[in-house]
Design brief:
- It contains 27 helices and 26 strands.
- By secondary structure, the protein is of the alpha/beta class.
- The chain has four domains: 141 residues, 3-Layer(aba) Sandwich (Rossmann fold), CATH 3.40.50; 125 residues, 2-Layer Sandwich (Beta-Lactamase), CATH 3.30.450; 158 residues, Reverse transcriptase/Diguanylate cyclase domain (Alpha-Beta Plaits), CATH 3.30.70; 245 residues, TIM Barrel (Alpha-Beta Barrel).
- Strands 18-19-21-22-23-24-25-26 form an eight-stranded mixed barrel, surrounded by five helices. Strands 2-1-3-4-5 form a five-stranded parallel β-sheet, sandwiched between helices.
- α15 links the parallel β16 and β17.
- It is elongated and about 150 Å long.
- The N terminus is likely disordered.
C-alpha cells in the first residue's frame, strides 16, 4: 500500500491543475473506501449515494471527473450518463460496475463513459485511468486557451493597428501607399482614400525630400532597417482661403522591407514585396524640447536670459571685441531693499515686482544688448559695443531713472532703487568670470556707500575686499593661535580718587601688523559672525583674569565688557550670560555690559526685553559712545540703562569748542535728570577733568588716570588700593 501511495503521489505531482471529483455509489463501504484513498491525493471530493443525488449535485457545481456506479436505486448510472450527455455538461465519467452484460457496457460507452471498470477492480489501474482522463482534460483546456488567445490576438492586433496613435503604412513596389491606418486623419488631416495609390513623396515636406528618398521607402530587413529618423509630413489644412499655407507635422520614422517567405527555406531571401513603416507624431516632444531649451537658457519668471545664456553671449562678445579692438561693458544690477518688499507683501508679490522691474529695464536697452536675471533680485546687462565710458554712464542713469516711478503692489505705491556696478573689457579684465566678479564688487561698493547709484570697478575696491577676507581669515587664526589679548583700563571716582570700575578692552596682536584695536577688525567680525566666538573668548578670559584673583574679588570693583548687537540678538543671550556668572561665581552687581546705540536700530522691543532680564538679575547696562550714533531720549526712557558713557570725541572738544562743552553739559544734565550715572571716556588733562567734575560727572576714564594695561599691572593697582584702604581702616 505504501509503495502504491508513493507512486500515486509522484504521478499526482505531474498534474498541477486543480480538480474536483464526484463519487457516486449506493454501497457505502465501497464508496467511503474509494473516497478515503482518493483523498490521499486530491482534497476536493464529493460523495453521492444514488443517481438522483448525483444529478442534483451536478446541477449545482462543475466536476472534472465523475466516478459512477451503474446499478443504483432511484436513478441508475445510465440515467446519470444520459443527463450529462443531454445537458452537454463538460465532465468525464468513469464507470465502476458489477455488471458483466455486454449490452450494459455498450450502453454506458454510447452514453459517453470515458472508461469502465468491473468490480472488483485494481485501484492502480483506476488511478492510471483517472490520470489519463485528467491529462486529456488538461490538453483540451490548453488547446481551447490557445485558440482563444489566437483569436483574441488577431482581434487585438487589428484593433491596435486601427486605433494606434501612430501612422502605420505599407508601400508597394512603386512607392505608393497600399495601406494606411485610421490615424492618418487625426495626424495629417487626410482621409485614407486621399493617400491610397498616391506616391509617398507627395506628402513629404519639401526640405526633407532628399532624405526621404533613401529612408521612407526602406528595403532593408529587420535589424538593418532605419531607426528614429525624423522627417516632416505635409498636413491637409483644408482652408481654401489659404491655399499656399503648408503646415507640417514632425514625425519619427521606422520602416523596413517586406519580403516573401520561401516555404521550402524560410531563411532564404526572396522577392521584395514593399515597405512596412510606422510614423510617430513627435510634435509634443518637439514642443517639450523647445520648452526645455528655453528653460535651460532663460529665467522662467521674467523670461529674460539666464546665467548660462549670458555666459554664451559674453564669450561671443569678447571674441568679437578682441578681433575688432573694441570695448564692451558689463553691468551688475541689484535691487535695493527688495527683501523688505518680500517680507512686507510676500514672495508672490515680490515675483510680480521682479517681472515689472525686468520690463522697465528691458525697455531702456538696445536690441543687441543682453539683460539677464542671475537669480533673486540680481540682474546683469551686457553692452557689446559701447563707444565710451560716458555712454555706459548714460545707460546706467537711464536704468536708475526707469525705476523712479512708483510700482503698484496690492493697491499701494512702492518705490525701489537699484545699485549698479560696472566693469569694462579689456581694461578691467579679459576673463569672463573676472569681469563679472569685478562688476559685482563695484555694485557692493555702491551699496556700502549709499545705494541707488552706479560706479565703475576700481582696483581699490578689490583691495578692500581682499583686506576684509584677510581680516576674517586672520581672526579665525587668532582664536586658534592665542593672538588675542585683554587690556584693562581703570575707571576712577574723582572725588575719592579710587578705582571703582575697569573696562576690558580687546586687542589683536597681529603677527605682521602688531597690536590692533577693535576698530580694525570689528566690522568684519560682525559680518562673518566671528564676533560670537570673540565675545565668548573675552567673557571667559576676563572671568579667569579678574575673578580668579582674590585681590580683585575683595575689591568690589565692577568690570565692564563690550558686547555687540549680534550677541544681544542670540535667542538665549540673557540665560547664557546669567549662567556664565553662576559658573564663575561672579556677583551680578560686579558685571556691566556695554552696548552701542546703533544696536537698537533693529528690534528694540526684543532687545529691551533681554536687557531687562539681565537688569532684574543685577547686571548693569551701559550705553557706550553715547552721542555718536542714533541718540534718542526714548532709548534712555525705555531701556534699563544704568550708565551713559560720554564719547571721547566730545570730551576732546571741551577745551576748544563752546558747542562741544555745551553738548557735554547737556548730556550730563539729561542723565542726572533721568537718574543715570555718567562716565566720561578719554579724559587726558586736568582742565577736562575739572570741567566734568564741575558739571557733576565724577566717574572718569582716560590716560589722565591710567592707560590700558595687561592683567598683571592692573592687579598690582588693585592690590595697592586694597592695601591703602586696609591701612586707613587700621588707622
Amino acid at each position: 500500500m505504501d509503495n502504491l501511495l508513493i507512486s500515486f503521489e509522484k504521478k499526482a505531482r505531474r498534474f498541477k491543475r486543480p480538480t474536483s471529483f464526484l463519487v457516486v455509489d449506493d454501497e457505502q463501504r465501497a464508496r467511503e473506501s474509494l473516497v478515503k484513498l482518493l483523498k490521499r491525493q486530491w482534497s476536493d471530493i464529493t460523495e453521492a449515494e444514488d443517481g438522483e443525488e448525483a444529478i442534483s449535485l451536478i446541477q449545482q457545481r462543475q466536476f472534472n471527473l465523475v466516478i459512477l456506479d451503474l446499478n443504483m436505486p432511484k436513478k441508475s448510472g445510465d440515467q446519470v450518463l444520459a443527463f450529462i450527455r443531454d445537458k452537454k455538461i463538460n465532465t468525464t465519467v468513469i464507470v465502476l460496475s458489477g455488471e458483466t452484460s455486454i449490452n450494459k457496457v455498450t450502453e454506458a460507452v454510447r452514453l459517453g463513459a470515458y472508461d469502465i471498470f468491473k468490480k472488483p477492480y485494481s485501484f492502480d489501474e483506476l488511478e492510471h485511468s483517472i490520470r489519463n482522463a485528467l491529462d486529456k482534460l488538461h490538453v483540451e483546456d490548453e488547446k481551447a486557451q490557445i485558440q482563444n488567445r489566437l483569436a483574441h490576438s488577431e482581434r487585438l492586433h487589428r484593433y491596435m493597428v486601427d486605433n494606434s496613435p501612430d501612422l502605420i503604412y505599407i508601400l508597394n513596389l512603386a512607392g505608393e501607399f497600399s495601406f494606411v491606418n485610421d490615424s492618418v486623419t487625426k495626424l495629417l488631416g487626410y482621409d485614407k482614400a486621399d493617400m491610397i495609390g498616391k506616391h509617398y513623396s507627395e506628402f513629404i515636406a519639401d526640405e526633407d525630400r532628399l532624405k526621404a528618398e533613401y529612408l521612407f521607402n526602406e528595403r532593408r530587413r529587420a535589424s538593418r532597417s532605419n531607426r528614429t529618423i525624423e522627417l516632416g509630413l505635409k498636413c491637409n489644412t483644408k482652408d481654401p482661403t489659404k491655399p499656399f499655407d503648408v503646415t507640417t507635422c514632425p514625425i519619427e520614422l521606422n520602416s523596413m522591407g517586406i519580403y516573401a517567405v520561401d516555404s521550402k527555406d524560410p531563411k532564404k531571401l526572396s522577392t521584395y514585396q514593399g515597405t512596412y513603416g510606422v510614423a510617430r507624431d513627435i510634435s509634443s516632444r518637439k514642443k517639450a524640447e523647445k520648452l526645455i531649451t528655453f528653460q535651460a537658457y532663460h529665467d522662467l519668471l521674467t523670461k529674460l536670459p539666464n546665467r548660462a545664456m549670458l555666459h554664451d553671449r559674453l564669450d561671443l562678445a569678447i571674441r568679437q571685441a578682441e578681433r575688432s579692438g573694441e570695448t564692451l561693458i558689463i553691468m551688475f544690477l541689484d535691487l535695493d531693499r527688495f527683501k523688505l518688499i518680500n517680507d512686507s507683501f510676500g514672495h508672490v508679490v515680490g515675483d510680480q515686482l521682479l517681472v515689472e522691474v525686468a520690463e522697465r529695464l528691458k525697455a531702456e536697452i538696445r536690441t543687441g544688448d543682453t539683460l539677464a536675471r542671475l537669480g533673486g533680485d540680481e540682474f546683469m546687462l551686457l553692452l557689446p559695443q559701447p563707444t565710451s565710458r560716458e555712454q555706459a554712464e548714460k545707460v546706467a542713469q537711464k536704468l536708475i531713472a526707469s525705476l523712479q516711478q512708483p510700482f503698484y503692489l496690492k493697491g499701494k505705491e512702492v518705490y525701489i532703487n537699484i545699485s549698479i556696478g560696472i566693469s569694462v573689457f579689456p581694461v578691467d579684465s579679459s576673463d569672463i568670470n573676472t569681469l563679472i566678479k569685478n562688476a559685482d564688487m563695484a555694485m557692493y561698493d555702491v551699496k556700502a556707500t549709499g545705494k541707488n547709484g552706479y560706479t565703475f570697478y576700481d582696483s581699490k575696491i578689490e583691495h578692500a575686499a581682499a583686506e576684509k577676507i584677510s581680516i576674517e581669515s586672520g581672526l579665525r587664526n587668532a582664536l586658534k593661535n592665542d593672538e588675542l589679548e585683554i587690556f584693562y583700563q581703570p575707571q576712577i571716582d574723582v572725588e575719592t580718587r579710587k578705582i571703582v570700575g575697569v573696562e576690558a578692552l580687546l586687542r589683536w596682536n597681529h603677527p605682521q601688523l602688531g597690536l590692533r584695536r577693535p576698530s580694525y577688525f570689528m566690522e568684519q567680525a560682525e559680518e562673518s559672525r566671528i564676533i560670537e566666538q570673540l565675545s565668548d573668548w573675552v567673557l571667559h578670559r576676563v572671568a579667569s583674569d579678574l575673578f580668579g584673583s582674590q585681590e580683585f574679588v575683595n575689591s568690589q570693583i565692577r568690570v565692564s565688557i563690550n558686547l555687540s548687537a549680534t550677541d544681544i540678538k542670540q535667542k538665549d543671550f540673557p540665560e547664557n550670560l546669567v549662567s556664565f556668572t553662576d559658573v564663575y561665581g561672579i556677583e551680578p552687581g560686579r558685571l556691566e555690559i556695554e552696548i552701542t546705540e546703533n544696536m537698537f536700530m533693529g528690534d528694540i522691543q526684543a532687545s529691551t526685553h533681554k536687557l531687562q532680564v539681565l537688569a532684574n538679575k543685577g547686571i548693569s547696562i551701559a550705553i557706550d559712545d553715547f552721542g555718536t550714533g542714533y541718540s534718542s531720549l526714548n532709548y534712555l526712557r525705555e531701556l534699563p540703562v544704568h550708565t551713559v558713557k560720554i564719547d571721547y570725541s566730545f570730551i576732546s572738544e571741551i577745551e576748544h569748542s563752546k558747542k562741544g562743552a555745551a553738548l557735554v553739559a547737556a548730556i550730563i544734565g539729561m542723565a542726572q535728570g533721568l537718574g543715570i550715572q555718567t562716565i566720561a571716556e578719554g579724559v587726558e588733562n586736568t582742565q577736562q577733568s575739572d570741567y566734568l567734575e564741575g558739571l557733576g560727572c565724577h566717574l572718569m576714564q582716560g590716560y589722565l588716570f591710567g592707560e590700558p594695561v595687561k592683567i598683571g599691572h592692573f592687579l598690582e593697582s588693585v592690590t595697592a588700593q586694597n592695601s591703602n584702604v586696609s591701612s586707613l581702616s587700621n588707622a
